[in-house]
Design goal:
The chain is mainly α. 71% of the residues lie in helices and 2% in strands. It is globular, with a radius of gyration of 20 Å.
Length: 337
């Protein structure tokens, strides 16, 4: 969503809800990374794994695929894929971080709309569609058919819920001339098609992970023996950088589902709005000052974004490892005394 769709009250409500969920996610990640936590990755693995998966999803989101016969395109959200590997709360935090980087560094999505985008894309996929639909259908992850079914159902549901949320937030904002019924008439069907595309891609990635590195899957819910995952992290990171470097050659130039729906609802690519309040001007100024590569205006944008996520994650992992070593040394000293 762009800032043109969001009013100050909706910005405040969505932002408060997103911040609250992010705070909860940090606590849940700490709890789920305790030793022997069911289906949880260890503290040593969770942060770098979040980093490489965030970089992969960031790169994958840059590749729009055409929706045949519509003149529209879609891109992966990645919430179901992230949740299946990281668990729902780590996935929510990872996808939210991707959305923040996209908004601030690339002006992709409005600054005022950031809370809405986190709720619509990260919360509804990772915290709603994943636990309610994907997990029950996926089971223990031993069947390729169940993986495909779970991925398709959960991804379509997540995209449809997100599309519905966008229309309701736009209607609640009341600053554009987009009639709710007509807007929904275009938003829901096009995002169902996008969800099918995402479901197929998600199932394909999970099939590869299940075949070659099943211990990475949090969706099975089985306790994992601590095993080295450095090679897997390196492979995912290299794939993310490769996809990020090639997005300009393979991405569709057709408008995405939201842009397409706005165009067919209003006849304009950008919704007409009379909003000129100071908050919108402040948000535009903040984004203009932080967006180093607006609209991904360089072929290095994908590599830069993926690299920023990777560096941030591994930096956090390094700090946490130092803190853990310091804590272990203190405990050993206390036992000696």
């Amino acid at each position: 969503m762009s800032d043109a769709l969001v009013s100050p009250p909706v910005f405040a409500a969505a932002g408060a809800a997103a911040v609250a969920l992010l705070a909860v996610s940090v606590r849940q990640i700490r709890r789920n990374s305790e030793p022997n936590a069911p289906g949880g990755h260890s503290r040593e693995h969770i942060v770098p794994l979040m980093g490489v998966m965030g970089a992969f999803v960031f790169a994958a989101q840059m590749i729009n695929f055409s929706i045949p016969g519509t003149g529209s395109s879609g891109h992966l959200v990645g919430g179901i894929l992230l949740a299946a590997i990281l668990g729902p709360w780590a996935a929510f935090l990872t996808l939210s971080s991707v959305l923040v980087i996209q908004s601030l560094l690339f002006a992709d999505g409005g600054f005022m709309a950031l809370g809405c985008n986190i709720l619509n894309m990260a919360a509804l996929s990772c915290l709603v569609a994943y636990p309610l639909l994907f997990r029950p259908l996926f089971g223990q992850g031993k069947s390729g058919g169940r993986t495909l079914l779970a991925s398709l159902v959960a991804c379509v549901a997540a995209l449809e819920l997100g599309a519905l949320a966008v229309t309701l937030e736009t209607e609640a904002s009341g600053i554009t001339a987009l009639p709710l019924g007509r807007f929904l008439l275009f938003m829901l069907p096009i995002h169902a098609f996008i969800g099918i595309g995402e479901g197929l891609a998600t199932a394909a990635v999970l099939y590869v992970v299940r075949r070659y590195k099943p211990e990475l899957l949090a969706a099975t819910g089985r306790p994992r023996k601590p095993r080295p995952i450095g090679r897997a992290l390196a492979v995912i990171a290299m794939v993310a950088l490769a996809v990020g470097a090639s997005f300009t050659w393979v991405a569709s130039s057709d408008p995405d589902g939201l842009e397409w729906s706005i165009l067919h609802t209003s006849g304009q690519e950008e919704p007409a709005t009379g909003q000129t309040d100071g908050l919108h001007e402040l948000a535009a100024g903040i984004q203009e000052s932080t967006a180093l590569m607006p609209d991904y205006d360089t072929t290095l944008a994908g590599v830069a974004g993926s690299g920023a996520i990777l560096l941030g994650a591994f930096g956090v992992a390094y700090v946490l490892r130092l803190a853990q070593r310091k804590n272990n040394g203190k405990q050993a000293s206390d036992r000696t005394l």
